[in-house]
Amino acid sequence: MKTWVQGGKAASFKQITFDTSISNAANGVNYVFWQLHRREIYEDLDGSLTQGSVLNKPYFVTPYYAHFDPLIASGICVSSAQWDTAVICDGT
Q: pTM for the complete prediction?
């Protein structure tokens, strides 16, 4: 019997730093590369992973899917090539 895992895999981060001397000539620094299955959910607890000011709320990074389009259009989430077309959403 084969068991399938559904849903995302969550991981939380804080106090992250980046070596910005390593860059991709086309896109600048790439922060993540998604493998197949693309189910990860990264929770940025202090703004250091997404390099944003979280104002006491987390940001979430997850692979882009079309159901995020309304959230991107409303400004709740943004898409970024540096995140391999992931979306970054605030925790509200």
A: 0.71
